[in-house]
Write a structure and sequence with these properties.
The chain has 137 residues and is mainly beta. The chain contains no helices and 13 strands. The chain has strands at residues 3-7, 13-18, 23-24, 29-32, 38-40, 51-53, 57-58, 64-70, 75-79, 92-97, 100-102, 111-117, 125-130.
């Protein structure tokens, strides 16, 4: 799973209204679509992540509710698009896609990498949390 909650997720699951005709994958980060509905996050969005989807589903109506996890205060195991380096630890990273962190990019500063999993240079998962407030502009 792309973003797997490790701890801090108690009581944070909720149903959130989604945009129509969106394929959501369990563990993917989502964002506001500008209309008060969620849609998948993407690289370069420069948009805060407030929820991670907790079910895989294709929405068939605008406003359809999708099970999500509010990310504030939650620590995640996150997949990366490439191997992490020791210099990536304790840095703010971007999303590579809705389900991946880009440990080498820090333009949007969406995810704080607290530590790497496995061996630096070969490991492709990190532990960390989503940052809140205004993303970098």
């Amino acid at each position: 799973m792309a973003f797997t909650p490790l701890y801090g997720d108690e009581g944070k699951y909720r149903l959130v209204k989604a945009a129509n005709a969106v394929t959501f994958v369990k563990g993917y980060a989502v964002k506001d679509d500008g209309n008060g509905l969620i849609t998948n996050s993407a690289a370069g969005d420069n948009t805060p992540v407030h929820f991670v989807v907790m079910q895989s589903i294709l929405t068939t109506a605008s406003g359809q509710e999708v099970l999500c996890l509010a990310v504030e205060g939650v620590t995640f195991l996150a997949d990366c698009d490439a191997a992490w380096a020791q210099t990536n630890v304790l840095t703010e990273a971007d999303l590579a896609a809705a389900g991946q962190v880009d440990p080498d990019a820090s333009t949007d500063d969406i995810f704080l990498i607290e530590k790497g999993v496995g061996v630096a240079g070969t490991g492709t998962q990190v532990i960390g949390h989503f940052l809140h407030g205004d993303p970098q502009t």
